[in-house]
Specification:
Blueprint: E1 2-6, E2 13-18, H1 24-30, E3 37-42, H2 43-58, E4 64-69, H3 78-91, E5 98-103, H4 105-117, E6 123-128, H5 131-137, E7 142-147, E8 150-157, E9 163-166, H6 175-192, H7 194-202, H8 204-208, H9 212-232, H10 247-256, H11 263-280, H12 286-299, H13 310-316, E10 328-333, E11 340-345, H14 348-357
Parallel strand pairs: 2-9, 3-4, 3-5, 5-6
Antiparallel strand pairs: 1-2, 7-8, 10-11
Length: 362
C-alpha cells in the first residue's frame, strides 16, 4: 500500500493507494475515529462495491449503516442532501460520527457537503471508485452541489479525515467512465508536469487495459500534484485556480448540454477551447495544441462537438464561481506543457472564437 500526506496543519490527512479494502479498518483506527459509521453510496456503485467494502469493516468488528442515493449528476442537488439529512437524523448521530463516501465525484461532493453542514461539521472519509474521483475530486476538500442549473455553486471547503483509494474498483467501470476520468489525469500533466504528461501519452494502451501497476503510479502522481497545489492554496485564493484548466468552458458545456456528456468529456472539450485561446493569443504554438489534442483522442475523449450553441455556452460561463468582477478567468497554457498562467479575459469575441473552434473539424 502506498501512502501520501496532504499537509494542511491540523486538517492534514493521509491518502492510501492500494488494490483492495483489506486495510480500511486499520485506516479508521489510525485516524482515531470512534463514533458511528455511515456509508453513503449510489445505485450504481452499490451493486459492485458496497458489499465488499462493508464486509471489510464488519470483518474488523465495525458496524456500518448504509444509505443509497440515486446515481448521476442530476441528483447532485439539495433534494438529495435533504434525504440524507433525514436519514442521519433517524440515526441520532453525535458529532463523533463519520460519513463514508463510497463512489465517484458526485457521491464524494454530496457526502462531503452533508458532513460539512450536519451538526455544523462531522467527520468524513473518501473512498473514491472512479478514476475521476481517485485522481482529482476526492483530494482537496472541495464539496458541494449544483443549484438551478449552475454546477457546484453551493458548497464548502471541507477536508476528509483520509482518502482510501482501491484502484481495482476501476475494473467495474464502463470504458466511457474510465476515459472520462483520464481527462483530469491529462490535465494534471498539462498544468504541472510535462514528464508525467508524456508518461500518460506513452502508456494510454496500458491504462485503458487497467494495468494495476500503471494505475497505482497514475493515481500516486495525480494525488501528489493535486495535494501539492492544495497545500499551497487550500481555498483557491491563487495557485489552486490552475486546477480549473479546461473547466471554465467545460462546466458551461456540461450545463448547457444538460449533463448528457460526462464531466471529463466536457473538461476535454474545455481544455481544447482553452488551448485554442492560448494559440490565438500567441502564447503557445499550433503544434502543442495538436499534440495534446492527439493524446485526448488516443484516450477516446471528444475534442470537437457539433450540436452546441456558442452564445448559450458563453452566457452560462457567467454563472461560474470563478468569475472575477464581470470578467471570466481562464487558465491558459504558456510556452510549453507544464506551464500555465491565470488570464482574466473580457474580450467576448476571443472567448466565442475559442468556443466556436470546438465545432470545427480541426
Amino acid at each position: 500500500m502506498l501512502k501520501l500526506n496532504v499537509d494542511l496543519g491540523e486538517r492534514s490527512y493521509p491518502i492510501y493507494i492500494t488494490t483492495n479494502y483489506d486495510s480500511i479498518a486499520k485506516s479508521i483506527q489510525d485516524a482515531r475515529l470512534k463514533g458511528k459509521l455511515v456509508l453513503i453510496t449510489d445505485t450504481n456503485v452499490e451493486k459492485y462495491q458496497a458489499n465488499d467494502c462493508i464486509s471489510a469493516f464488519k470483518g474488523s468488528g465495525y458496524q456500518v449503516e448504509k444509505f443509497v442515493i440515486e446515481s448521476g449528476e442530476k441528483n447532485k442537488n439539495l433534494d438529495t442532501v435533504k434525504e440524507i439529512y433525514h436519514f442521519l437524523l433517524g440515526l441520532k448521530l453525535d458529532r463523533n460520527a463519520t460519513l463514508i463516501a463510497l463512489g465517484g465525484g458526485v457521491v464524494g461532493d454530496i457526502v462531503g457537503f452533508v458532513a460539512a453542514t450536519f451538526l455544523r461539521g462531522i467527520n468524513f472519509i473518501q473512498i473514491p471508485t472512479s478514476l475521476l474521483a481517485q485522481s482529482d475530486s476526492s483530494v482537496g476538500g472541495k464539496v458541494g452541489v449544483d443549484f438551478e442549473g449552475s454546477k457546484n455553486i453551493i458548497g464548502a471547503f471541507y477536508q476528509p479525515r483520509f482518502v482510501y483509494i482501491n484502484v481495482n474498483t476501476l475494473k467495474t467501470l464502463p470504458k466511457r467512465e474510465l476515459q472520462s476520468g483520464l481527462a483530469e489525469v491529462v490535465k494534471h500533466g498539462i498544468i504541472k508536469d510535462e514528464e508525467f504528461y508524456e508518461y500518460i501519452d506513452y502508456n494510454c494502451e496500458k491504462i485503458l487495459k487497467l494495468d494495476e501497476g500503471v494505475l497505482q503510479y497514475l493515481v500516486k502522481i495525480n494525488c501528489s500534484i493535486k495535494g501539492e497545489v492544495v497545500e499551497k492554496d487550500e481555498k483557491e485564493g491563487g495557485l489552486r485556480a490552475i486546477l480549473n484548466f479546461g473547466h471554465t468552458i467545460g462546466h458551461a458545456i456540461e450545463t448547457v448540454m444538460d449533463f448528457k456528456l460526462l464531466h471529463g468529456e466536457c473538461v476535454s472539450l474545455g481544455m481544447i477551447g482553452a488551448l485554442r485561446m492560448s494559440e490565438y493569443l500567441d502564447i503557445i504554438d499550433n503544434g502543442t495544441v495538436n499534440k495534446i489534442k492527439n493524446t485526448l483522442e488516443k484516450i477516446g475523449l471528444p475534442t470537437s462537438i457539433q450540436n452546441v450553441d456558442v452564445d448559450k455556452i458563453y452566457d452560462q460561463m457567467f454563472y461560474d464561481k470563478k468569475l472575477i468582477g464581470n470578467k471570466l478567468n481562464f487558465i491558459l497554457l504558456r510556452k510549453k506543457i507544464g506551464e500555465v498562467i491565470q488570464f482574466t479575459v473580457d474580450d467576448e469575441q476571443l472567448i466565442k472564437r475559442a468556443i466556436k473552434s470546438l465545432k470545427e473539424s480541426l
